[in-house]
Amino acid sequence: MIVAGREILKHAHKHGYAVGAFNVNNMEQVKAIIEAAEETKSPVIIQASQGGLKYAGVEYIAAMVKEAAKNASVPVALHLDHGTDFKQIMMCIRNGFTSVMIDASHYELEENIKKTRKIVEMAHAVGVSVEAELGKIGGVEDDISVDEKDATFTDPDDAEKFVAETGVDSLAIAVGTAHGPYKGEPKLDFERIKVIKEKLNMPLVLHGSSGVPEESIKEAVRLGINKINIDTDIRMAFHRAVKEFVKKNPDVYDPRKILSPAKEEMKNVIADKMRIFGSAGMA
Ligand SMILES: O=C(COP(=O)(O)O)N(O)CCCOP(=O)(O)O
Ligand SMILES: [Zn+2]
Q1: 87-125 tens-digit pLDDT
Q2: Residue 83 belongs to a domain
Q3: Domain CATH code at residue 13
Q4: Which of 83, 152, 210, 230 could form an SS bridge with 89, CB 3.0 to 4.6 Å?
């Protein structure tokens, strides 16, 4: 069943585990996520970035995810990832998204607070949860690009002020991860996660989590991360499976035959993440 994002994240915060937030752009990704969640009995957040909505259309993404959630035996939230455009955020809420991110992290603190507070007031009025970001998460993906040197870690005191003045339901923090594939091994600032969690005592979000070593993910969850964003690892699973299938079956042109193994490969990757995050069995 489809639920508000805060319902899923409050449970994760209370019980000390993390929920995977997986990006979708097409039907196969939606199916892979729901099947993995059912298989591992895990709550799950299905999310689309503005780039994903541009590609598929907000109505298509909402319809696919709501249909999948309607028949699922686990709680599912539908989330806008990295919302920066007011109209886009409103269109998502109008289409039944149960959670939205307002990413105003490129602005100075006061401007970020102002923009975030406006979305919180409107989203909360209709029961939709809000995630915001403080500090700059590095890396490059379609719609996001923050040069590594501009990536700035979240300041715990700023975070306390930010949450008190905005009322957000969850906060994405910059602690050493970056979007997209890593060149070297990412080093997370665990002490910073610990201090922010102690100060805020609320659900915290880790972006740029693909490619982070399992032990680092588990330590981040132990210290208080409750939502973990994964996109690149699913893209790579899709790419691996399609490449292998087409190599072995160069003359097969039926999308059903080409995409089925890709859906399976994505499902297996996602189910493994759910076990590592500790959400397996929590639904
Ligand atoms: O944190 C993540 C994913 O991180 P990852 O790259 O480590 O999977 N995200 O918010 C996904 C961002 C996807 O944006 P776009 O569709 O514009 O490329
Ligand atoms: Zn992100």
Answers
A1: 999 999 999 999 999 999 999 999 999 999 999 999 999
A2: yes
A3: 3.20.20.70
A4: 83
In a domain, 18, yes or no: yes
- pLDDT at residue 141, rounded to an integer: 60
Atom of ligand 1 nearest to the CA of 137: 1
Domain count, the chain: 1
Neighbours of ion ligand 2 (CB under 5 A): 207, 229
Distances in Å between the Cα of 105 and the Cα atoms of 133, 145, 163, 259, 261 are: 5, 12, 13, 36, 38
Task: Report whether 164 contacts 145 (CB < 8 A).
Answer: no
Q: How many CB atoms lie within 10 A of CB 42?
A: 26
Q: What is the pLDDT of residues 164-191, one digit of tens each?
A: 999 999 999 999 999 999 988 899 999 9
Ligand nearest to the CA of 80: 1
Asked if the structure places residue 256 within a domain, the reply is: no
Q: Which of 73, 68, 77, 71 is nearest to 48 (CA)?
A: 77
With the most atoms of ligand 1 within 8 angstroms of its CB, the residue from 61, 207, 210 to mutate is 207
Check: pTM over 0.90? Answer yes or no: yes
In sequence order, the 6+-apart residues with CB closer than 8 A to the CB of 269 are 233, 234, 237
Cβ atoms of 70 and 105 within 8 Å: the answer is no
**Domain membership of residue 80 as a residue range:** 5-235+266-277
